[in-house]
Write a structure and sequence with these properties.
Blueprint: H1 35-42, H2 47-57, H3 69-94
């Protein structure tokens, strides 16, 4: 059985502020500062696209869209809670 491939548009990457920046900056060692990487992201026109890419593809490491792994986990949890709440409301409406 063939596995379903997730197709994600990455054309936004051509417009990213981080293009040409050392990728190691965005993957700091545990406990190291993320300030410089987040500064690169701050004014980036594709920051939201980058963040959504990381969330959709399950990126667990690095700074994406100006957010750390911990910040992205928080967003994923919040979105999961919102989906569960919507599902509960819909289920309640159909009962």
């Amino acid at each position: 059985m063939a596995r379903k491939q997730l197709m994600i548009d990455t054309s936004w990457q051509a417009y990213a502020n981080c293009l040409g920046v050392d990728p190691d900056l965005f993957f700091p060692e545990r406990g190291a500062s993320t300030r410089e990487a987040k500064e690169v992201c701050r004014g980036c026109v594709v920051k939201d696209d980058c963040l959504e890419y990381a969330l959709a593809s399950g990126e667990k490491f690095g700074i994406w869209g100006g957010m750390s792994e911990r910040e992205r986990r928080r967003i994923r949890r919040q979105r999961a809670q919102e989906r569960a709440l919507r599902a509960a409301v819909i289920a309640g409406e159909s009962a």
